[in-house]
Structure formats: C-alpha cells, structure tokens
Design goal:
By secondary structure, this protein is of the alpha/beta class. The chain has one domain: Rossmann fold, CATH 3.40.50.300. It is about 35% helix and about 20% strand. It contains eight helices and ten strands. The strands form two sheets. A seven-stranded mixed sheet has the order 4-6-7-8-3-9-10. Strands 2-1-5 form a three-stranded antiparallel sheet. A hairpin with a 2-residue loop joins β9 and β10. The longest helix is centred in the last third of the chain and has 16 residues. One of its GO terms (cellular component) is plasma membrane.
C-alpha cells in the first residue's frame, strides 16, 4: 500500500549547501537536478557502494517520518542523535498518499543492540515475542522482530538488514517480506545484498556520484561482481590478488 509516494530535496534558506550531507555527491546531484524519487507502493530498494548516500537519505527519511535516528518505532526517542545526525531531514519534501500507516519502524543493523536495549527499558518486550533480544543471536532477533513486531499496513524502513542474516536467513526474510507486502505494508530498504534486491516487482535506485537512478536488478554493479565471482571463483580471486 503506498503511504510514501515521492521524495525530493528542497533546502531551506538556512541550509549550508557546502557541508554534510549536501557534500555527499548523490545528495548534491539530487539537489542540483531537482530530482524526485518515486516510491514503489510495496518495496523500494536503495543500493550502492559504501558512502554513496543511500543510508544517509534513508535515515533522514525515517526521522522525517517521526522515527528515531538509531532505529525503533515512532515515539521511541532513546537518544538525542536526531538533532545532530540527520540534518537532511529538515530539507526533505515527501509526498504521501491519503492512507496512514498503522505501524512504523526504522531498523538499522549497526544500532540494533541499542534498539533491543530500549525495547526492554520501555517494557514492551511482549510485542517482540517475549524473549530478550540479547539472549538471541543477531539474526534470530531480527527474524523475531519481523515475525512478532511488524504488523499489517505498516511502513518499514530497513538499513542493510542483511548484515544480521545468513544466506538462509535472507531467504526467510524474503518470505516474511512477501507476507507483509500482501498484508498492505510498504518497505524502503537500503541493501548490498543481490538476494534481497531481487524481490519481484520492486523499484531499485542505484546511488552513485550522479545521484540515485532507477535500475533493473540485472544492471546493478553488485549483481555483476557477484555473478563474475560465482562464475569463476578461482579466476576471480587470482585476478583480484595478482601483483600489479
């Protein structure tokens, strides 16, 4: 279900355009071109190299929608990072549908430990399966979150979820993702995983210095590199490690 429709950057008069995050090439390109990103009603992927700006934009979107910069639900403000880490949120222009999500959650792999601690401190563990996430592996806790906490007709923003998951875990994730899509959820996911970004009928934006651009799965650089490795692992490694 489309809760978010489009996103663009419209800097306020007081924006310092030469400073972070406007110095990130993809963000600067979005600004210069007045680009508007169109979200898929079900799943939109942000892909690209480290430092390409995909997580910067996703975090800003999450905070813009009322979620904590470190992750969690709306109203779960267990850190003051919002005031310093997501300045871009002030300069986003987000067009939404008339539908309102019944749930929302921002998940980022790098701060999942902090979110798990906050869940216990808030006394809301029963909504997450009842077992402390600190007593489970990172991947098990993440799958528990998907199964126990994510609800129909929700808006879910996920930053590199594959960091917590084995290959089989990523397959479990895709099955649960599909279940939630069929229950009216919308996802925006930043990922490096060729497996995840292969989810059918999703919109993919690949981030580079020229800004985010729509791309087919088969066109993604990560997919090409992975395929080259799987086609000839020994040859790939020999070329990679050869003396220059």
């Amino acid at each position: 279900m489309p809760f978010l429709k489009t996103l663009s950057i419209a800097p306020k008069p007081w924006a310092k355009l030469g400073e972070h995050p406007f110095d990130v090439p993809s963000i600067a390109s979005m600004l210069e071109s007045s680009m508007s990103m169109r979200f898929h009603p079900n799943v939109t992927f942000f892909v690209g190299d480290n430092g390409s700006g995909k997580s910067t934009l996703l975090e800003a979107l999450a905070v813009h929608q009322g979620m904590n910069a470190e992750g969690g639900t709306k109203g779960m403000q267990f850190s003051n990072r919002d005031d310093t880490v997501s300045p871009l949120r002030h300069h986003l222009k987000v067009r939404k549908s008339h539908h309102t999500p019944e749930d929302a959650f921002f998940l980022r792999a790098e701060s999942f430990f902090n979110v798990a601690t906050a869940i216990e401190e808030y006394g809301t563990l029963k909504w997450y399966g009842g077992t402390s996430m600190h007593d489970r592996s990172h991947g098990e806790s993440f799958i528990d979150l998907l199964v126990e906490r994510f609800q129909p007709r929700g808006l879910y923003l996920l930053d590199e979820p594959e960091a917590a998951l084995s290959v089989h875990g990523q397959l479990q994730f895709l099955v649960r993702l599909h279940d939630l899509v069929e229950q009216g959820c919308q996802f925006v996911i930043a990922t490096h995983s060729p497996l995840l970004m292969a989810y059918p009928d999703a919109t993919i934006y690949e981030f580079d210095d020229d800004g985010p651009a729509p791309a087919a799965w088969s066109e993604i650089d990560t997919v090409h590199v992975t395929k080259d490795f799987l086609d000839d692992p020994q040859g790939f490694m020999a070329e990679l490690l050869a003396d220059e």
